[in-house]
Amino acid sequence: MIKYICRDTEIIEQPADLTTLTYKYVDQALSFIDNATARKNPFFLYLPFHQVHHPQFASKKFYNKSLRGSIGDALLELDWAVEEIVTHLNNLGHLSSTLIWFSSDNGPSLTRHERGGCAGMLRCGKGTTWEGGVRVPTFVHWPDYVKPGKTSALASTFDVLPTITKIAGIDTSHLILDGIDISSLLWDPEAKSPREFFPFYPENPVISLGPLAVRNDRYKAHFYTQGSDLSDASNYDPMCPGSHQLTLHDPPLLFDMEVDPGERYDLGKDSEYTNIIDILAAWRKEHMTNMTWMEARTTTLDKRSQPCCTDNKCDPFPECCDCPTEFPLNHIFSYNLNTTPKN
Fold this sequence. Notes:
Elements: E1 5-7, E2 10-13, H1 18-39, H2 69-91, E3 100-103, H3 131-134, E4 138-141, H4 160-168, H5 183-187, E5 197-200, E6 213-216, E7 219-225, E8 247-256, H6 274-290
Helix pairs in contact: 1-2
């Protein structure tokens, strides 16, 4: 993999220096906020961090500072980065008028063992449709509007876009979106989720197969299960590793997520829950009928199609692509990279 940093369409650093990457992210984020403030414009900042992914890293300031090892060091740096942005918003007087939404895309990569994180009581991890692979925390902060509290109501990262556009008064009626507006959960964490169902697709979806699992309110049914070595090839749970081949379940495995979030106690063979399974199966069938599939975007390409700072015809490729350049920084010169992080 060729690692590089782009600004718009220009490669400005190749290879990327991961030990300073977070400072560059923060610097660009603060500059973006400052520019919008100077122009008196509203702004939308999307800032995806790399920290808990492989390869894992932390700058000198955070290296070996956590009891949780390398992933703990990375999380310390991530926490610092978020704090820098929040503090900057507060100093500019924007904090009360800015919606901050923090979340993750999937569960832990258990194949990395202690470096990959932990899903706690949730079953399996990344690459599976078990809760350890798909359930993630999210935090929403908007003090003038979001009521403090917590909820386990059904929601998805798909719902972020339609929720934000609804709040901002942006018309998305011309778009086909997989998400729905869940702003009612922001105003009242005790409210019922407006999302009734959610399909869980495998790592490599297949049209004829459809979603492996479906959830409605408190119940989740696994029509198929399939393991992934991202959940650790030596995982003690036979459902988790890649050695667990695609398996049809008839009747599907059924779990009550409110009392059994670890998905340990199958209710699927209990006649008391036949109606629940029928509802989930009917919705899944309708969903598969109405789903619009795009052409795959993950087809393997020639390696020389990867971005190259110099010339993708150079040799030896990709080493010849290196363009060690000095990254221009505006804010981070004030950061003392050698200090110990505060507790």
